[in-house]
Amino acid sequence: MQLANPENFKQFVQIKENNAVTTSEIVAKVFNKRHSDVLRAIENLISNSPDNFIERNFAFCFKNNRLQNGKPQPYVEMTKNGFVLLVMGFTGKKAVEFKIAYIEAFDYMQAELAKGTKGLLEQYYQVLGEHKAEKQFASLCGQGLSQWKEKKPLLEATLRLFEDKMQIELPILNN
Question: Global pTM?
């Protein structure tokens, strides 16, 4: 059981009213348990969990069972959090496989986050270095512009003097 592969979640999860849920029946089937045992495990969780957690993560439902002459059969819909809380209390091979896969999924995500954090830090220092270099260049440019402002009038006046001296005078013929 590898939780990192989304295909493996399909056996647990269904969409109902835009919420990802699973049912006590699916849990019983996947973990090879009797449905009545799964319901009993949920009842034990309820007695030991805060009401607000139960309300957010478990919904008690009934459906008509043709095999029992239309007698309503109880089942529970649960969110991911309710599912994980329930299954973490299970024993057996499937439960151990699930727990290991869940741990591996957390380890994988933690490793990815560590990579992402390192990548962000490296990117930060790269941008910081570029910022310092550009700031220094801009400062030099500013100093250069300040010097240019002072020297420009003198240099342009000197150039005009040389241009005037270099100008060739042409004799004008008068007829």
Answer: 0.56
